[in-house]
Design a protein that fits this description.
The protein is of the alpha/beta class. It is built from 11 helices and 13 strands.
């Protein structure tokens, strides 16, 4: 295959490119920073990777590279868990997903030889937050800021169907691996200062990064995969259980909670990302026959940390 990827230098994207390289596929990395991308994917180690400069929110000559690709994976978007959600920051979070997806769909629509599939990231923030409800792919959307962002994001992606292209929307849970959210949780545990964040009762719907990459590859290669799928493990946990499991695997105590007010002081409205959660079940994903390497949190953490 030849696959175009946005967000390729990120936590998930870089591992996806590595996997495609190992399996002999060609990758077109669409990036705002070609110098950085060349450091992440040096040509001697990644001979099948083509690096192309693009402007996510603007049409341009970069769009022509889409025509030669078999599939497109759109992972780009401003990080949601870093810094306070000022009005300007919220606009950046929304626009990066809305306009970025809009321009990818435009490129596909204008291509003479169209890719067969667009795999578009979304997030389980689509469902809103709850300590009591359980959500699957058929559940209605929430009405908070992240839910609204996901609705707009997915609506732009759906326009690719007008061009006759198969669409797969993957609603990502919290991705666990060497980096990402887990990378920020590990240091306090190493210092014997780890513990649950906030009440500890909020749900934590997660997926091991290896399973997520496998899920993306399945979506690329199986034409029967179409529509919305939750990219989460089948066994979500509460934050307190995550902290306990992390402490056990690291052989560290996990009793020192991080109070909600401390997170709110640091992140403002953005604190919702860690203080509130949702219990998400990957019902449709399981129905496809997808086999998780890490269906349980303990096995996932053990693999990552050891």
């Amino acid at each position: 295959m030849k696959v175009a990827i946005t967000g390729a230098t990120g936590f998930v994207g870089s591992l996806l490119v590595q996997r495609l390289q190992r399996e002999g596929h060609k990758t077109v990395v669409l990036t705002r920073n070609t110098t950085f991308a060349q450091k992440v994917f040096p040509s001697e180690a990644f001979p099948n990777v083509e690096i192309v400069a693009y402007t996510p929110n603007a049409s341009g000559s970069w769009q022509s590279v889409i025509a030669s690709c078999d599939g497109v994976v759109n992972l780009a978007g401003e990080p949601i868990g870093e810094g306070r959600w000022t009005p300007e920051r919220k606009q950046e979070i929304l626009n990066s997903r809305k306009l970025g997806t809009q321009k990818i769909v435009e490129a596909i629509a204008n291509a003479n030889s169209k890719p067969s599939v667009l795999i578009n990231a979304s997030a389980i923030g689509y469902y809103g937050t709850s300590e009591t409800a359980t959500f699957d792919e058929t559940s209605l959307s929430g009405n908070d800021f992240l839910a609204q962002v996901c609705q707009v994001w997915e609506a732009e992606a759906r326009k690719v169907k007008d061009a006759g292209v198969r669409l797969v929307i993957l609603r990502f849970g919290i991705v666990l691996g060497n980096g990402g959210a887990l990378g920020k949780m590990i240091p306090p545990f190493k210092l014997f200062a780890g513990g649950p964040i906030g009440s500890g009762r909020q749900w934590f719907s997660w997926i091991h990064v290896d399973d997520l990459v496998n899920l993306i590859l399945q979506a690329l290669t199986k034409p029967e995969i179409e529509g919305v799928y939750n990219a989460t493990a089948p066994n979500p946990v509460r934050m307190a259980d995550l902290s306990q499991a992390l402490g056990q695997v690291m052989n560290r105590p996990s009793w020192l909670p991080v109070p909600a007010f401390a997170i709110e002081a640091l992140l403002g409205d953005g604190a919702i990302v860690v203080l509130e959660g949702q219990q998400v079940i990957p019902k449709r994903t399981v129905q496809t026959g997808f086999e998780y390497k890490y269906p349980n949190l303990q096995s996932a953490l053990t693999q990552i940390l050891n």
